[in-house]
Every structure is written in structure tokens, then in C-alpha cells.
Amino acid sequence: MTFSKEEFSRYSRHFILPEIQLEGQKKLKNAKVLVVGTGGLGSPVLLYLSAAGVGTIGLVDFDVVDESNLQRQVLFGTKNLGKSKVKSAKERLEALNPYINFICHEEALTSENALQIIKNYDLVIDGTDNFATRYLVNDACVLLGKPNVYGSIFRFEGQASIFNFEDGPCYRCLYPEPPPAGLVPSCSEGGVLGVLPGIIGCIQATEAIKIITEIGEPLKGRFLLYDALSMEFTEMRIRKNENCVICGKNPTVTKLIDYQEFCGVLPKERASENPNEISVQKLKAQLESPDEPKLLDVRESYELEIAKIEGAVHIPQNEIEERIGELNPNENLVVFCRSGVRSAKVCKILEEKNFKFVKSLRGGILAWAKEIDSSIPIY
């Protein structure tokens, strides 16, 4: 493994580190790292691993760049809007370091393709934002014996660890079961501080470099928690669960499963079958009929300043139970929030209180803005 004159200059600050030197940089150049997700976490991970000289980097993503991404996904700019994330990322990263081999996997990671993709890499960095893919990445890494550098973000808090490394715990050792579907809001529903993924992503990149160069003390068996508001790092110790269903002594999960079903996520092709939801098109038609339903907006007050549907009654989600007397249990009620997560929870509460005609607006006010009323801002 040789370096060009330009590479010696580029990586000179690594060469003079006693812990890395020439041998460490060779390990980086020989390494193959797969980054699942090129968004908030993937952006800093990819930028710093490319700058560090990791020789082969795989990128997995099937999405396109949206304007709401630009607040935190620093790989992309305005010129990339509507374009493939993977292709846009590759273009940006090649401009940063032309000596890296970038492999694009422009597809969703699934139970059908995960093992085939991951087997060609030394380690995986999980930059995903949903539980189904996290469990998929974890299980595939365990089955293939690959380290899983984990990170997650929400609002002002972040987490990081290394799973399945040197007989350490896996993600299932910490979280044997996913939370009930819809219980934990996504960043698109709950929000995220723009700089937060930069901090957690840099930690993931650091841990990957440490694993590759075999230096320092990686986060194996340690779970790092970060609170941006208090600027505090907290560390928990986690142990391998000998009864873990996939990495324990007698595993019962020996192949990849249906992770959407495991996490209680309704497949997209079946979303329209959910009897507890109503589409924006059907709602529009009902609003134009004599028996128009009553609209209940369960978002926070500050969200009304951004976007609203005229005529809707506003009761924030966390006030529903104490203000339930303001609603008629026999009335036809359509509940909506930003994207449909909070409204689904409120519908369950109302149904338990014997409300007979309650539905959640599928896709929330975002779907209404995209498909019915383009004058409503999308946030």
C-alpha cells in the first residue's frame, strides 16, 4: 500500500501522530466502511471519514434532498434539492477527497439485500432514523460478525455506542424489543437541533477510526448520552445479554426477519387500509358535504403560527384528557397533527373514552398542504 506525494501532504497531520503514523494511515486506506443513511448523522460521518482517508466508503440511501434537510444535513446545498442524496453526497465527497473509492447503494436497506451489501465491508455506521432499520442493521451485523457504530438523535439529545464489537453487546442487548409503534416521535415530528447530528456523527466517525486503526478505548459496552441544552455527557455501562435472541448463547433469531412487522409499522402499500385513518382527499370531500366532520388540531400552539387549517378546534395533545369535556363523543371527529403520529395517539385516547366516530388524518397537515392546499407552509 503506497501513498502519492499529494496523499502524504494531505494526511501529514495523521502521519505525525504517534498513535497513527504511516501504519495507521495504511489501515485507514485499506478499510471498507458502510454508512447507512446520508442524512443528519451520515453527513458528518461521511465528511470526516472521507477527509481522514478511509479507502472505500459505501453509501446507502434511497431518498432525495428536501429543503427541510438543509438545516442539519451539511453534505447538501440548495443546488441539490430534489436530487438523489447518494449521488449528491458522492459528488460532494469526491470534491473533498478524490483518493477515496465511493460505492453507491441507491436503495433502501431491506431484509432481502442487507447481508449481500454489508458482507463486503469491515464495519457499518448506523445513521438511520427509524427502529425497523436499526434492528435490521444490528441483526445483519451480528450474523456477519461486523461492528456496528451506532448513533441516534432527537430534539436536543443524542446517543452513541458500538455494538457487536469484540464479543461486546449488540443493540438488542440494550433494547430487546422496539417501543410501541408511534410512541417515540421521529425527528420530523418532534424536531431536532441542527447542530446535534454534527456532534453525534463526529463521535461515530471517531469511533470508526479508532476501530480501524486499533487505538484508544472504543465505546464497546458503553452507552454515551449527550444533552445539548445542559452540555452534559453521561455514560452508561451495558453488558452483553447471554440470553439475547441473536447474539446470546442460544440465539433464536438466525436469519433476517420482517422488521416492519417486528416494529409494528404498517407497510406503505397497506397504509390506505388502516380503518382508523382518513386520507386528505376523503376529508376534503366530506368537508364539502352537509355532514362535514369536526376538525381537531392537536399540535402545539406555536405550530399554529406556522400553518393551520381554518375552522379546526385546537387542543394540544398533552391537554386532551383534561379538556375532553369540550368535545362531543357522538360527533364525527377528524384529528390531525403535523404528520399523523400525535393524532393517532389522541384517537386511541378518545376511543378509550367512548368516542364513537374518530379518525386520524393520514399524513397530517403536511399531506393537506402537499395535496389539497398549497398555500399552507410545509415545516
What's the number of domains? Answer: 2
Identify the CATH homologous superfamily of the largest domain.
NAD(P)-binding Rossmann-like Domain
Order of helices and strands: HHHEHEHEHEHEEHHHEEHEHEHEEHEH
Structural class: alpha/beta
Distance between the termini: 49 Å
**Mind telling me which CATH architecture of the largest domain this is?**
3-Layer(aba) Sandwich
Portion in helices? 25-40%
Tell me, briefly, the overall form.
elongated
CATH C-level class of the largest domain is: Alpha Beta
**CATH topology-level name of the largest domain:** Rossmann fold
Strand order of the largest sheet: 3-2-1-4-5-6-7-8
Could you report the average pLDDT, rounded to the nearest whole number?
94
User: What is the count of β-strands?
Assistant: 13
Concise structural overview:
With 379 residues, this protein is of the alpha/beta class.
